[in-house]
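Need the bound structure for magnesium ion, inputs here:
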Amino acid sequence: MKIHEYQAKQLLEKFQVPIPQGGVAATAHEAFKIAESLGGESFVVKAQIHAGGRGKGGGVKVASSLSEVTSLADAILGMTLITHQTGPEGRLVKKVLVEQALDIEQELYLGVVVDRAQARPVIMMSSAGGMEIEEVAARTPELIIKEAVDPAVGLQPYQTRNLAFGVGLNPHLLRPASSFITNLYNMFLAYDCSLVEINPLVVTTDGQMLALDAKVTFDDNALYRHKELIPLEDPDEMDPLELEAKKHNLNYIRLDGTVGAMVNGAGLAMATMDLIKLAGAEPANFLDVGGGASADMIANGFRIILSDPRVKAILINIFGGILRCDVLAEGVMEAAKQVNVSVPIIIRLEGTNRDLGRDLLGASGLNFTVAGDMLDAARKVAALA
Ligand code: ADP
Ligand code: MG
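Answer from helper R.:
Posting the output first, comments after.
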């Protein structure tokens, strides 16, 4: 689960990670009020969307008066912001963060991620802040200093010193840098994050270190331990079909292709997507209806696939185990009653009650083709899509 920068900063503050003074606004007037209460001469107005690269895309602007805050907020709110992370369709901006503008001397990068290979959280720091870290990693990997933390021992003081010295920080910043890194790491652990990224972490001309930008991603599998975080999710930032799928406990991810796929089991779904590609088409989604799906869940999954206008053909690939083929057939028929099925369907059913499932579908009046095996199914659906 992702959250907005302003929400991430509220969490950082709880963990004593220094952030600029500011507040979030949904209208230009609110933005003005926040700037007025902040005082000072210059402000920054920042679009709040779940994507980076806002600065380059025109979503982060400096205002040198209160009236400029109003006009910039007015321009940014309601704009469709396009960055390299939003895709060409961009994102509608509904909120802005208004902050004090800082006098920046140095922009650094600080991130914590889980390194699967090492099975440990890794803290990364770089003097090349403000740019995309992927680019730094590709071009100048020597500028990224890493420290893996043994979770049984915890983050050690020598590690924070290694990071701070490694990026060439002025020695008098060692203490604030160490507590910055330690507090950020504590937050990463406390909330079961999969990513915490401060880019840039700035050193101001008066020697303060602050998190100027913040990106936080939580591990969804651990959210049950952090119920207080769940309201932070912004439905406006989610794909509407993914949001709908979530309501029905379906494991659905929207993709860019034209073949809708309904499969039971994540492994089988991955294999099905591979076969669709092998046959020359692109999957429109990943959908694992799960081992114990009910007819209702199948109906909802089928309805969601059908509501994607890009879908030109559907492949249903079910291995009947706990989910019996006749239950699958009932679900598909239920969904077909609710929505008009205008695309061809290829079905590959195997396992428990296969024949009953096929008979039910055969009598349903739906336009579908039964495939012999998975590859045959993928070829047939690719030809149609
Ligand atoms: P993004 O990463 O989405 O482009 P950032 O929050 O990193 O957005 O902002 C982009 C750039 O704007 C920063 O690298 C920094 O140079 C500048 N900036 C952002 N907030 C402030 C601020 N409060 N004061 C001064 N400059 C800022
Ligand atoms: Mg940034």
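Comments: The first strand starts at residue 22 and ends at 25. Residues 174-190 form the longest helix (17 residues).
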